[in-house]
Each structure stands twice: as structure tokens, then as C-alpha cells.
Design a protein that fits this description.
transmembrane, Cilia- and flagella-associated protein 300, about 50% helix, two-stranded antiparallel sheet, mainly alpha, two-stranded antiparallel ribbon, globular
Amino acid sequence: MAAGEPGDLGVYSFRFLPQKTFQSLSTPQTTSRLRQWSMLGRIEAQAFGFDQTFQTYRRDDFIMDFFKDPNVISNLKLLSESSGEWITLGTEVKKVEAINVPCTQLSMSFFNRLYDEAIVRDNGYIVKCLDSFCDPFLISDELRKVLLLEDSEKYEVFSQPDREEFLFCLFKHLCLGGALCQYEDVINPYLETTKLIYKDLVRILLVCATLQQRVMNRHFLTLLWILSSVMFTFYTTVTAWGMCLNIFSGYLYLLFFLYQFFVLTLIYR
């Protein structure tokens, strides 16, 4: 049985894909902004391939196999809290917890509510507020109040399912930044960088879905072609027989007369 077929419950195997790069993280504009937000060198994206079809019901097996795979252990990068340097995983993980992160949002209009609720002005400037703290973050504008303070009057602008979306998580991560973040006064740099990175990270999923849909469409069109061919053959056969019967019906009386004559001849012989 080939890997990935129904009934195949083998261990997932992974391979590191160092040739797969994420250009969104290395453009001059993104690099400049990440530096300003104290995130340059502290955000990393890596790609790994796997050998079986992913099944949702095997999510926990998939994650555990990932962290136990030798290729992952020797290549997956982690940022050390003590040294601030990137290190490899280096050891097997004993326990994991998988959390579903939806990627259903495909438009930046998702954030239009920030304008509608006067969190951001029409000219793109973020509305300021009195300083407060939500450890370890300094909150000095309405945007960070919406992102962090559950008792904020506008916190419900984004529902809990909205906040679980990968697009929102990425946006929030960039807005809050690192320890020495220099916040933006306008919203556009956050939105532009979020869009750029999001498209780069999730486009492979969209490509796979598109290819799968094309394969399904191709199979459907093939089925339609087969059905059309069968119907055409059936129609042609019936039409041909109909024409033959129409031609043959003109001779039925003659054949019946000849049959009767033949039978009478045999009787009187």
C-alpha cells in the first residue's frame, strides 16, 4: 500500500527543505520595519516536507511524529530565551499539544472594522489614548487596547474566532513587536507587512487546494465526456435501428403474404 492511502497509519517522515525561502521576510522594506519593531533576527520561517497525506483525525500523531523526526530535531530552529541566539531543537519532544489555527481569511478587508470603530482614523493614523500597562507591553493607543485588554470597550470588535485566525495572530505579533519596539503612528506599515508575510506563508496551501480542485474538475469533465459518448452511441444505435425498422416496415405485408402462401403450399402438397 502506498504511503498516504486510506488505511495507512504508518509514522510520518519529514525532510528539511532549506531551498525553500520566504522572500517576504528578507525584502529591504520588511527588514527595515522588523528592525524598528525590534524583531529583526527574532522571527524565522522554515519549510519541511512530509511523506503521507495529512489527515485531520491524525493531527496529534502528525505533530508528535514531526518533533520526533531526526531531520526535524537536527534542523528546527528555536530562539533561546537565555542567550537570544537561534539554536536547533536537539532532542525529542515528549509531549505536544496541537491547536488549530484557521487560515480562512483571504482579504485584508478583515481589518476594515478598525476604521469603522474609530480605532484608526480615515487618514490611517492610530488613535492615541492615555498610557497604561499590560505586562510587558506599554499601551498608548486604541489599537493595542483592542489587541490586549479584554475589558476594553472595543475588545469585542474582533470575536474570539476572529482572534484565532492566523491573519489576526500575525497582525497582532507585528503590532506588539519586540522588547524595544518603536511603534508606528499609522496603520499601513502593519497591514502591508502582515499581508506580505501572510501571502508568502499560506500560498502553498491555496496552490494545493487549487490543484486538487482542478484534478476533481478534470475527473468530472472526463465523466461528462464518457456519459456524453455513451449517450451519443445509444442515440446513434437507436436512430439507426429506427431507420432500419422504418425501411423494413414497408415489406412486412409482402413478407406476411409470402409466408401465408408458403404455409398453404405445404398444407395442400
